[in-house]
Design goal:
Blueprint lengths: L1 H11 L12 E3 L4 E4 L2 H10 L3 H14 L2 E4 L4 E10 L2 E8 L6 E3 L6
Antiparallel strand pairs: 1-4, 2-3, 4-5, 5-6
Length: 109
């Protein structure tokens, strides 16, 4: 339950941050929730207010490898940083890996 609370808090703290450039190396400054597909990450955000639905969905996605949490200090390479008004999402990959993940740029500097 503690992990779920941390994830919910992390997902709700996404604020306006400076845009990252493709190819830029960034470092996680908070535990960064990330998913291989944008719709899955979006669904996580939508379920935040419903812990009864959020918890099993998160466990399923994490167990399948669709989503993961990158710890503080994880280096990522930005592939795409999209901004639209107050919304911001970022597609990136860990430095030593090829798989790309959607996450929120506010987790990274």
């Amino acid at each position: 339950m503690k992990l779920i609370v941390v994830i919910i808090v992390a997902l709700t703290t996404c604020g306006a941050v400076q845009a990252h450039s493709p190819g830029q190396r960034v470092i996680a400054t908070a535990a960064a929730v990330a998913c291989k597909s944008w719709p899955t990450l979006k669904t996580l955000g939508e379920l935040m207010g419903d812990p009864a639905r959020f918890a099993p969905f998160w466990r399923e996605q994490k167990g399948s490898g669709e989503c993961r949490t990158f710890p503080v200090g994880t280096a990522m390479i930005v592939d795409e940083d999209l901004r639209a008004g107050q919304k911001a999402i970022m597609r990136a990959h860990p430095v030593e890996e090829k798989g790309q993940y959607w996450t929120y740029p506010s987790y990274f500097k």
